[in-house]
Amino acid sequence: MTIEYSARGENVERIQHALNRAGFHQTVDGKFGDATYAAVRQFQEENDLEVDGKVDEETLAALGLDLDTLEELSPSSGDGSIVFTEEEAKLDVPPSVAEKIQQYVRLVEDQHQKLLNALDAALHNFETTMSFASAADAQPDIFGALVSTATVDQCPLH
What we know:
- The protein is mainly α.
- It has 2 domains: 10-89, Muramoyl-pentapeptide Carboxypeptidase, domain 1 (Orthogonal Bundle), CATH 1.10.101; 95-154, no CATH class.
- Helix content is 49%, strand content 0%.
C-alpha cells in the first residue's frame, strides 16, 4: 500500500495523526496536500528512509502504523506514556526480565528526582544570592517561574 500526494480520507488522517505524534505538527484534515507532503519528506529524511514524499510500507512501519489497517501499533495515551493492549498486557515475561525492568524504572525515577532537586536548589540559590536595586528589578525570569512552580508531585513518574 502506498499513499501519496492528493490522496484523501481516513487513511490520510491516520498518517497525519502519526506524523503529529512524531513531532511533525500539522492540521489533521484527511487531505494529503503540500503540508503533509513536506512533513512526510522531512520524516523520511530524519529516519533514513527513501525521501520521495510517498507513504509506503517502510514509512508506515517507521510511523508505527499497522501495514494493513494503518492503526497505531503501540497507542499512547496522549501524555507520552505507552498504552498496552489487553493482549500485550497478558504476555508473560521471565522474572529476571521483569526485575531488570523494575530496576530500570526505579533508576529513571531516582535520576528524575535528583534532577528536580538539583534544579530546585539551584533556583533557590540563585534567588537568595541575587541582590536588586528595587523590587521592580526582582521580576522572575520565565525559567525561574516555571521551575519554581514545578513540584515532585507533578512528576509523571510518580
